[in-house]
Design goal:
Elements: H1 8-21, E1 25-30, E2 33-38, H2 51-68, E3 78-80, E4 85-88, E5 104-105, E6 110-116, E7 119-124, E8 129-134, E9 140-142, E10 147-151
Length: 152
């Protein structure tokens, strides 16, 4: 059996890709060699939504584009979704939100999490500043590139 040599620099580069893109894992294969790098999953239990609770959330989502339009995505402080998934503003139901409007945040601080394919990915502040707007509702689906918050 041939000895498998680990290229630790390559593993570090893969880990950096995970960090930069917000992906939960990456796997590569070449011939009979295979490498998988994954971030630890954050477990969040989502409370089931009742139809009555879904209606106000839908109304809030419809009102947000009218209030700010598509220009919020061009705002220099916009924190955009790096993936398609479901946004959660708190670590688990019944717990306080990660941040609120007016909170001062540091670069790298978790603002919210996005669940994609049963993996919970923390979305971190790209810079230090103040949260001036939260543009998504809790437990709402988000699209790639959609503005989530404004940090100024």
């Amino acid at each position: 059996m041939a000895k498998f040599e680990m290229d630790t620099e390559f593993v570090r580069k893969l880990a950096q890709i995970l960090h930069e893109t917000g992906l939960g894992e990456v796997e590569l294969a070449e011939g009979d060699k295979r490498i998988r790098v994954a971030r630890p999953a954050v477990t969040v239990a989502a409370a089931p939504m009742t139809p009555a609770a879904a209606a106000p959330a839908a109304a809030g989502a419809a009102a947000a584009p009218a209030a700010g339009g598509n220009d919020l995505g061009k705002h220099p402080g916009a924190v955009k979704s790096p993936m398609v998934g479901t946004a959660y503003l708190s670590p688990e139901p019944g717990k306080p939100h990660f941040v609120a409007v007016g909170d001062k945040v540091t670069a790298g601080q978790t603002l919210l999490i996005i669940e994609a394919m049963k993996t919970f990915n923390p979305i971190k502040a790209p810079k230090a500043g103040t949260v001036t707007q939260i543009l998504v509702d809790n437990a709402r689906p988000v699209e790639f590139g959609e503005p989530l918050m404004i940090v100024e």
